[in-house]
Specification:
The chain is of the alpha+beta class. It has one domain. It is built from 3 helices and 4 strands; from the N terminus they run αβαβββα. The strands form 2 sheets. It has a two-stranded antiparallel sheet with strand order 1-2. A two-stranded antiparallel ribbon has the order 3-4. The longest helix has 35 residues.
Length: 141
């Protein structure tokens, strides 16, 4: 039964990580044209940092190989802003340029699609594991 629980734990960690990634992508897309933030300057594109975590560091070799994923941080990617000439914009500098975040909406959409697929894959793992557990219980009757 511990193997089923480990499978649920791995899939659940994947779902949690992909949810964090979806939230980050949504924030990036929502702020693609934000020129002023509380920190000053334009919004900086964010990326989640994933790290694997061993489920059982003292178990068998197979147990040590199984790992879950955790989001350890959400960082700015450090891209410099894109300067666009727009002298009528309220955030234009004295030369008439506005600094916009360097966010490619198409790249964010591709990331969104791959994140959605990974989320669906983890959901399928949870469903398949549940079905196997239920069938095992039926066999035991």
């Amino acid at each position: 039964m511990a193997d089923l629980i480990d499978t649920f734990n791995v899939a659940a960690s994947g779902l949690t990580a992909e949810r964090a990634r979806l939230q980050t992508i949504a924030a990036n897309m929502a702020n693609a044209r934000t020129t002023r933030t509380a920190e000053g300057g334009p919004y900086q594109r964010k990326v989640p940092v994933f790290e694997s975590k061993t489920l059982d560091p003292f178990g068998s070799e197979l147990d040590r190989a199984a790992s879950s994923v955790v989001v350890t941080d959400v960082r700015s990617d450090g891209r410099p802003p894109v300067r666009v000439y727009d002298p009528g914009h309220p955030d234009a500098d004295p030369e008439g340029y506005v600094s916009y975040p360097d966010i490619n909406v198409m790249q964010e959409m591709v990331d969104l699609m791959s994140t959605t697929r990974a989320y669906e894959a983890n959901t399928s793992v949870v469903e398949a594991t549940r079905d196997m557990a239920l069938r095992a219980l039926e066999i035991g009757r």
